[in-house]
Amino acid sequence: MAAKDTSNKTGKTGLIFFPAFDWAISPTHPEREERLLYTRDQIFEEGLMDLPEIEEYKPRLATPKDISRVHFCVPNVEAQVTEAHLIAAGSVLTLADAKEEGAIRNGFALVRPPGHHSMMVVHGNRGFCNINNMAIMVEYFRTRYGHKKIAIVDTDVHHGDGTQDIFWHDPDVLFISFHQDGRTLYPGSGFPNEMGGPQALGRTLNIPLPPGTTDEGIHYVLDNFILPVLKDFKPDLVLNSAGQDNHYTDPLANMRFSANGYARLNEKLAPDLCVLEGGYAIETALPYVNTGIIQAMAGLDYSHVREPDYVPGKFVQSAEMKRDIEATIGQLQEIWDNRDRLVEDALAEHGQFYRRRKRIFYDTDMINEGQEETVRLCDRCHGYMTIASQAQKGYGILNSAFCVSLPRNACTSCREDAREEFEEHKEDSKFNYVYLQDKQKDTYHSYETRTRNQRDY
């Protein structure tokens, strides 16, 4: 794999490695430290870390406040995360700082545990995820550096349902996910009709792809839909949840993407920062995919990045598969083109409040959660949201929580009503815990109704 400079781009590519040696779901689980160790061996063997285009950074710990900007952790942050989770999240924040300070042009956080299945409310581990590293970075960028419009492109083979959930009602975050069709793969979601909440319709764009989709199909989606939409949206930052389980050797999925295809995707997408998500072909995919992505980000020649068993023309896309993908893109293009009208119609339909109920299954911890979400549809701001959540394990109630979230642009009326909801529910014995997330003031409150103890971040 040559590392020949073919670009006149300036600025370094920042890298962080965090294999999390002391964290594992089980010793033989697919999500384990070897996912990163083989990659690290490969890029040292290729001499990439000695190149002037690459700068390695050391991770740091995220704080409970960093986590609370995104999540309502029940009962608290400390109960849901380990030190490994805090270091993985802190690693992406280190690269965020380096990017904002101008020390790097772009960066790649090769960290674990992953995060994109972790939703706003957290009762445990689902899809190998406890906290959402990508979402934590987005809120950090917005709080510390004042960015408003951010685009997230999730290229993991599994639908990024956690990231979708967190930004479902936020019109300033564009979330695009392409993934293997949810009818054939966990978590069973990610369809075009999942478009976002009433005030953010069309800002969630899901592209389910048929099993067996090749480089050709994924690059068709990128060239004909994702890149034009990004150009139209004009985000301050483009971030990539860089799952690598679309690879043809991945044991948990059924796609046919190659390492070179991933590198070309990265070159075209040109993300500001990438965060590793899934990818479980430890020896046959990850070292080659990650090496290709790193070289593409650094403006280096990745044309010789190739898996030992890869044969050009090995995978051919059928005419039927091509028609299916083109039809999906046509449907999504119509949603994107009509997004403002969709919002107007939804606001007229729902009136002052929007409500939805959800059932969430934590496949790793075998927890079932029921949620009732209520959003104030305010004509002066994005409105505040409340979530009533109850989780159970087996036949017993695990925990219940009432969560209140205030957006950054909250008007005076919404601020007063949200705080009133928080104070009233502190006296409600129906819930074990009550939370207030005030993004405008960057303050976060957790109250335990049994002990009447309140913690503030």
Helix and strand arrangement:
Blueprint: E1 13-18, H1 34-45, E2 54-56, H2 64-68, E3 72-73, H3 77-80, H4 83-100, E4 106-111, E5 121-122, H5 133-145, E6 150-154, H6 161-166, E7 173-180, E8 204-209, H7 215-233, E9 237-242, H8 259-269, E10 273-276, H9 286-297, H10 319-337, H11 339-350, E11 353-362, E12 367-376, E13 385-393, E14 396-406, H12 412-425, E15 433-438, E16 443-448, E17 453-456
Parallel strand pairs: 1-2, 1-4, 3-5, 4-10, 6-7, 6-9, 7-8, 9-10, 14-15
Antiparallel strand pairs: 11-12, 12-13, 13-14, 15-16, 16-17
Helix pairs in contact: 1-9, 4-5, 7-8, 7-10, 8-9
Can you walk through the features of this model?
There is one protein chain. It is built from twelve helices and 17 strands. The protein has 457 residues and is of the alpha/beta class. The chain has two domains: 327 residues, Histone deacetylase domain (Arginase, Chain A, 3-Layer(aba) Sandwich), CATH 3.40.800; 105 residues, no CATH class.
